[in-house]
Amino acid sequence: MYIGALAKLTGASRKAIRHYESLGLIPAPQRNGRYRIYSETDANLICMIKRAQSLGFGLKEIKGVVSVRAKTRQIPVEMVAELIDRKRKELRDIVDNALSQDRQLAELRADLLRDSAATSADIQRT
């Protein structure tokens, strides 16, 4: 299939498909004259790439997985599991950090309201 059909099938732009190719995420396709001819395997790889990206993985992170998948037609399960575990830890760290900031903001707000109330009370006494 030509790049337009591949783009429509996968939801990836033509530019993204060429980018994946330039990074080695998908193999260089066969050519018919100056036209690239993509396979169903290419479509599957692109769908896998897009799904990984939608879950927060960068192209550099998934390059090894995609490379193995393209060569063997099998997903390297242990490699994927390790990437998922790392990503989940990153997300937990982000959530923990956000919760800590939220607690600090709540404390700051309470301090401000308490200080404001104390200042108002001092002004009224004078």
Outline: elongated
What are the segments in which pLDDT stays under 50 over at least 5 consecutive residues? Answer: none
Number of DSSP strand runs: 2
**What portion of residues belong to β-strands?**
under 5%
The CATH class label of the largest domain is: Mainly Alpha
Q: What order do the strands of the largest sheet run in, or round the barrel if closed?
A: 1-2
What is the CATH topology descriptor of the largest domain?
Multidrug-efflux Transporter Regulator, Chain: A, Domain 2
SSE-based structural type: mainly alpha
Helix content: over 70%
Q: What CATH architecture of the largest domain would you give?
A: Orthogonal Bundle
Largest sheet: 2 strands, antiparallel
Order of helices and strands: HHEEHHH
Mean pLDDT: 91
How many domains comprise the coordinates? 2
What is the first-to-last residue Cα distance? 84 Å
Which radius of gyration do the C-alpha atoms yield? 26 Å
How many DSSP helices? 5
